[in-house]
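Design a sequence for this backbone.
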């Protein structure tokens, strides 16, 4: 393990000069090339981000058992509410960072990082304490089966103890992406995932720690990635480096940050509260459905990675060009991103539809035929409609980049409202497939609503 760490540090700080240090202004040059150069590392980064929980799911599903897989899956929506409160804060501040960088205001960019860093650490500490205290009651509220509830609670409590590392990694990742560098976060993420896999195998296979082991592995690997990215920025990126005199709260920027971040944090919370309520509709269907839902959720996450990456890319592109006052370029970027998203998702739809059984067997023991069959039905419904996600994510990124965050909050809230109503009506009738149908209904309403706003602001 020590040798692995030494290698990681060597690779990070001596090999990055050639492949990483590349801050990119998106206000000049070919739009397609700019977006592709930014999005490809983002896609890889999002894939590796998914590997944190996917690795946990594969290892517990194949080596601990179906109940452990169901426990990790049930914990995920609650974990995500806390995590994406933090991510929402980082998304909000990244819009301002991109705008300041696009306008050449480097000192203002540094003050924004400092302000968010100080307030974010306090905010994360409060969120961690609150969720640590309420994790068990929340699991009871969503009708978690008795045979998995203790493992769920243990997984969550360990995760919340390490939430501060997630914040530090995400805020510095946001800063790097705001200046057009999506490669450095990718490398740190790859290193972190490798550490996570090694620790998962050590804690689960060698030490027999079960769900506790995968939770500890996740927290330790997140701490490792946070340390790496902080050290990297302080050594290699002077535009983002904070000196002792820079570490203070700028009250004027704090107000702007709150105005942006409360909306993005609320939006992310609404999304994952909705997913938690969807989990509440799945839990009464039994352990097979819960295990299948955990598996298909992971497959969905991988499948939709290109669209998720476009979301962040078009946000950064739009915000930088907004800071530079290039309105026509913003409109061109939106259309280019939409074409990319549709193309990506058509390809992904065919792959998931055809190979659904094979993907499910990555997470589930082939002997769990009932759970696999349930998952196949879900994935084949969902994959037909993946192309709609391209519209959802590009529209969301576009409005975020313009700073019109109330539209994204409203659209997400309406999406989740229709999704929840539909799933509770259909789940007792058609089982887990109800989640797929409900998700498609939510996407449809969301796209229609955002297109109305898009037409209002587009000449």
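Sequence:
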């Amino acid at each position: 393990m020590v040798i692995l760490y030494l290698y990681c540090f060597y690779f990070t700080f001596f090999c990055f000069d050639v492949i990483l240090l590349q801050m990119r202004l998106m206000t000049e040059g070919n739009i397609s090339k700019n977006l592709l150069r930014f999005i490809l590392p983002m896609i890889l980064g999002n894939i590796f981000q998914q590997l944190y929980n996917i690795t946990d799911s594969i290892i517990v599903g194949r080596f601990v058992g179906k109940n452990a897989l169901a426990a990790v899956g049930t914990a995920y929506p609650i974990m995500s509410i806390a995590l994406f409160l933090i991510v929402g804060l980082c998304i909000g501040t990244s819009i301002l960072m991109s705008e300041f960088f696009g306008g050449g205001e480097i000192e203002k960019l540094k003050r924004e990082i400092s302000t968010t860093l100080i307030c974010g650490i306090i905010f994360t500490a409060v969120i961690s304490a609150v969720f640590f205290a309420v994790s068990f009651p929340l699991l009871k509220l969503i009708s978690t089966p008795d045979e998995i509830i203790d493992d769920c609670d243990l997984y969550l409590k360990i995760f919340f103890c390490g939430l501060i590392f997630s914040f530090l990694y995400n805020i510095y990742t946001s800063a790097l992406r705001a200046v057009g560098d999506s490669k450095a976060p990718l490398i740190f993420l790859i290193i972190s995932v490798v550490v996570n896999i090694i620790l998962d195998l050590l804690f689960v296979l060698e030490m027999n720690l079960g769900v506790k082991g995968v939770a500890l592995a996740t927290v330790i690997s997140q701490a490792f990635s946070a340390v790496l990215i902080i050290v990297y920025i302080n050594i290699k990126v002077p535009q983002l480096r904070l000196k002792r005199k820079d570490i203070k709260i700028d009250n004027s920027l704090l107000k702007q940050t709150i105005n942006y971040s409360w909306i993005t944090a609320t939006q992310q919370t609404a999304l994952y509260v909705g997913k938690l309520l969807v989990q509440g509709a799945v839990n009464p269907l039994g352990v097979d459905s819960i295990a299948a839902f955990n598996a298909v959720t992971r497959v969905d996450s991988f499948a939709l990675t290109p669209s998720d990456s476009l979301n962040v890319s078009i946000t950064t592109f739009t915000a930088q060009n907004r800071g530079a006052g290039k309105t026509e370029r913003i409109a061109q970027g939106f259309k280019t991103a939409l074409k990319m998203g549709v193309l990506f998702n058509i390809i992904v739809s065919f792959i998931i539809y055809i190979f659904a059984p094979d993907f499910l067997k990555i997470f589930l023991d082939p002997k769990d035929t009932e759970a696999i069959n349930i998952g196949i039905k879900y994935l084949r419904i969902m994959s037909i409609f993946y192309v709609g996600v391209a519209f959802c994510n590009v529209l969301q990124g576009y409005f975020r980049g313009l700073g019109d965050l109330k539209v994204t909050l409203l659209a997400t809230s309406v999406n989740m409202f229709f999704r929840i109503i539909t799933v509770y009506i259909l789940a007792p009738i058609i089982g887990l497939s109800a989640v797929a149908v409900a998700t498609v209904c939510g996407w449809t309403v969301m796209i229609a609503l955002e297109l109305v706003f898009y037409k209002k602001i587009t000449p």
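The two ends are 58 Å apart (CA to CA).
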